[in-house]
Amino acid sequence: MKKFLILFVLIILAGCRPSNDADLNTAAKVYVENIVIDEKYPFKEDTVKILRGEVFKKYNLTEDNYKKIFDGILTDKDKWDYFFAAAGKYLDTLKAKELLK
Q1: Would you tell me how many other CB atoms lie within 10 Å of the CB of residue 24?
Q2: Are 35 and 96 in contact (CB under 8 A)?
Q3: Fewest CB within 10 angstroms: 13, 33, 52, 72, which?
Q4: Do the Cβ atoms of 29 and 59 come closer than 8 Å?
Q5: Which residues, including other chains, have CB under 8 Å from residue 41's CB and lie 6 or more apart?
Q6: Local confidence pLDDT in tens for the 101 residues of the chain
Q7: CA atoms of 28 and 55, how far apart (whole Å)
Q8: Is 72 within 8 Å of 23 (Cβ atoms)?
């Protein structure tokens, strides 16, 4: 019974952390796109809410899952650094695409 309980707790804890770099990359893209939305529509709360919902849908991620991923990196410096490096790269990609238009 104890083994089952320990296994159950480990499974639950593992589910609260990003499972791989792909999760962090996705969360970084959501983070960047949400910041861009906030910057473009600073006083339009309804618009921001709708557009953020579209971002989460685009990446097949719920806001709760996003928060869990983000919370999972807060205490892990390596994941934190990776997340913000990925966010920076994605932002640079968006800037480059914008210049091409």
Answers
A1: 23
A2: no
A3: 13
A4: yes
A5: 47, 48, 51
A6: 544 444 444 444 444 444 566 799 999 999 999 999 999 999 999 999 999 999 999 999 999 999 999 898 989 999 999 999 999 999 999 988 875 44
A7: 12
A8: no
Please, are residues 74 and 13 in contact by the beta-carbon 8 Å criterion? no
How far is C-alpha 71 from the geometric centre of its chain's CA atoms?
10
C-alpha span between 16 and 13 (Å, rounded): 5
Amino acid letter for position 31: Y
Backbone angles phi and psi of 23, in degrees to 5: -60, -40
What does the block give as tokens for 11? 């499974």
d(CA 55, CA 65): 13
Locus of tokens 């962090």: 24
Q: Give the CA angle between residues 54, 69, 41 to the nearest 5°.
A: 35
